[in-house]
Specification:
Elements (H helix, E strand, L loop, with lengths): L2 H14 L7 H7 L4 H12 L3 H9 L2 H7 L4 H7 L13 E5 L2 H6 L5 E7 L5 E7 L2 E8 L4 H11 L4 E4 L1 H12 L9 E5 L3 H10 L8 E2 H7 L6 H9 L12 E2 L12 H14 L6
Parallel strand pairs: 1-6, 2-5, 7-8
Antiparallel strand pairs: 2-3, 3-4
Helix pairs in contact: 1-13, 2-3, 4-13, 11-12
Length: about 280
């Protein structure tokens, strides 16, 4: 088992046993390491301490959502922006496939893809010359399934296995870009409604959550919560388009393509990163 796999396994164990508040020694033993070595390894790869990650897991995030009256549009207006879709344009830019590109079905477009190890699990990433077009969690066997799905959406494109080309898409998630760095570009295909929902997801700040109904209201379609849920489920770029920040109005975790445990893991890791100083 490599170091990334150990960290992912440890996080998954803490998610499953958060109510028991497992000690450092117990979690370390689960991944067959001494407490001292595990502490150093976790801080190095996850960027936070095991204790901080466990603390983030135990916060009652759902209650915070219900008690908050701040909508996505309120956040956007507070920052003086024209609307929710522009809230993080200077960090991440979402570019929709043009009608011409859709008609050509990717003809003339070369798509690079690769699989990268991370503390949260292996990530499949694919990029076009215009930006990241696909990202998702994979295990050792299902990266081919994501590639096949991508090939179905871009049938006339050419595909090149090139982890060197896609590495930036993953590294920027775990290594913050310097201030003034160029915005990251996402190149996605979807219906107008899906694009609107994905843009709305970009307005949810790190470490915060929104409900499906919050997003529906922000889009001016308050009765479209179910359609919002479908669009969230169709998100093509995990983590960068943060569907993990959407939960049910009741405070329940809600669905996630890669499972509820993975969703909780990502939420806790992201929350713990805010102002984190490993120790």
């Amino acid at each position: 088992m490599n170091d990334y796999a150990r960290i992912e396994k440890a996080m998954a164990y803490m998610v499953a046993h958060a109510a028991e508040q497992p000690s450092l020694a117990v979690v370390a033993a689960h991944v067959h390491l001494s407490a001292f070595h595990f502490q150093r390894l976790f801080c190095r790869y996850a960027g936070i301490s095991p204790k901080r990650f466990l603390q983030a897991l135990t916060l009652e995030r759902g209650k915070q959502l219900i008690q908050s009256s701040t909508s996505l549009l309120d956040i956007a207006h507070t920052l003086g922006l024209s609307g929710g879709s522009r809230l993080y344009d200077h960090f991440v830019q979402l570019e929709a496939v043009t009608p011409g590109e859709f008609k050509r079905q990717g003809e003339g477009v070369e798509i690079a893809y690769g699989v990268h190890e991370t503390p949260l699990g292996n990530l499949f990433a694919a990029v076009t010359p215009r930006g990241i077009c696909r990202m998702g969690f994979v295990d050792a066997t299902d990266s081919k399934a994501l590639l096949a799905r991508l090939a179905k959406e871009w049938p006339r494109s050419t595909f090149q296995h090139s982890p060197e080309t896609t590495r930036y898409a993953v590294e920027r998630l775990f290594n913050r870009a310097d201030e003034g760095a160029a915005a990251l570009s996402l190149h996605v295909a979807g219906t107008n409604f899906q694009i609107a929902v994905w843009r709305a997801l970009l307005t949810i700040p790190e470490g915060q959550l929104a409900s499906y109904s919050h997003i529906a209201q922000a889009l001016g379609t308050p009765r479209s919560s179910r359609a919002v849920g479908n669009a969230v489920g169709a998100n093509p770029i995990a983590l960068w388009i943060p569907c993990h920040r959407v939960i049910q109005q009741s405070g329940a975790l809600g669905g996630y393509r890669w499972g509820a445990a993975k969703k909780q893991m990502v939420q806790a890791w992201e929350l713990a990163q805010l102002g984190a100083t490993p120790h």
